[in-house]
Amino acid sequence: MGSIEEKRSQGATPPTADFENGHTQLGTVHDVHNLTLLGYKPELRRNRSMFTLLFQSLAIAAVPYGFGGPLISAIYGGGQLPMFLGWVIVLILSECIALSLSELASRYPTSAGPYYWSFQLASPKYRTVLSFITGWTWLIGNWTITLSVNFGFASMLAATVALFEPDFAVEAWQLLLIFYAVCLLTFLLVAFGNKMLPMVDTICAIFTAISIVVTCIYVSVKADVGRHLPSYTLGNYDTSLSGWGGFSFWIGILPSAYTFSAIGMISSMAEECGDPTVKLPNAISLCVPVGGIAGLFFIIPLCATLPDLTEILGAPVGQALPYIFGRVTGSPGGGLALTLLVLIITIFCSISITVAASRCTWAFARDNAIPLARLWSKIDERHGTPIWALALTTLIEMLLGLINLGSSSAFLAFVSVGVISLAVSYGIPIAISLLHYRKEVNSAKWTMGRYLGLGVNLLALAWIAFEVVLFSMPTALPVTEVSMNYAIVVFFGFMALSAVWYGVYARKVYRGPPESDGLTVES
Fold it and tell me: How many CB atoms lie within 10 A of CB 45?
């Protein structure tokens, strides 16, 4: 526990504190005290509520984009059945992950997230290494899932142009320039608009709800290629498209799994929310049911009006949604209108997910786990944001984007790597908690209880293991050089680099996050 005292001596009570009426500029006295117990001094402004955290998590899920961006996988996977039933199954399994993470976030509410949880839960002999592994997996997941959102915007925009110019073939450098523009726009908004970001997330939630309603009505009314019978709408299943036969259904649930793959990322916002032991787990646990119900109003109308599946497989840039919108509305203009709604939601998603990724980067640097940690862990006092960590996150994205110039299939692996990395970073602390009979989370302020928690944790780990396998597989058979999924190769490549860094230098300076007993009901 000596590390806690060290943190305290560094100034756990910031100079901006004003204890009059029990408040400081960085949260209430109670929040400051609790963060000190967790081993850190408060540096970020607590300007978020439970609702704005929930709205941020919904913005990150971005249902119309999260489901619509990789929708081509659901078409290969058989169409309507994996789209609808797969969505329901993923909701149940993703909620198991969300509930498991909520308990951990309640016991240890810091921006350090999963790697902090792993350190506190593991035995002293292995905690530092396990924390380092979890942290780098968590960091890679944050970077690559953010990359996938920004590049997804570029791809969908190119597919939108193809609505009016069917022969238009986008060049790799054009996609890269659009991607760079999104990265830079997001950087500026996140770096200098911190005070407005909770409002941005709120606007996003409202805009997404309106967009889903508009899409539901417009698609249902127009239905230019016809309306299917209810049995076909919810049960059509073509196993001949992917080459996987009866296993195609699981390929078809990839868009649903991608949508809720980042549900744990708002744990990095713990130090920007008052009373995070309750508000943060509430936000994490509510994201899946709220987003899932809203998603049904988006997915079912699509299933009811979907064009012939073999037609959709030829959609430009592999983006099925703009093509479907154009066919269902019967005009490029109608397709543009609906796709524009999704593109705006994607920009909102880019902002919200970049915020979370920058906090993750900052927290890991604060614990001296990445090169030049002292620089990346600085907070810009004027704007209240970790601008250097944000700059690093943006720079990594832009450098990885260059890979698309050489190999589009290798680059697309980063979408899968994001999901795999986040899933593994969730699974490690959940598994350690189970090995210790859940004794730590059972005494958290937000807990499922001993027996329900055990069942939920086991389901969460089973889903995580299956998810890693699914996102490592090619969408269609036979496998070619282009269709090959290099995700697992890229993932282990990243992990090998982090292992080299640990062996060469990090093992000498990284001691893990501060040791803490966490916050319990009595805290």
Answer: 18
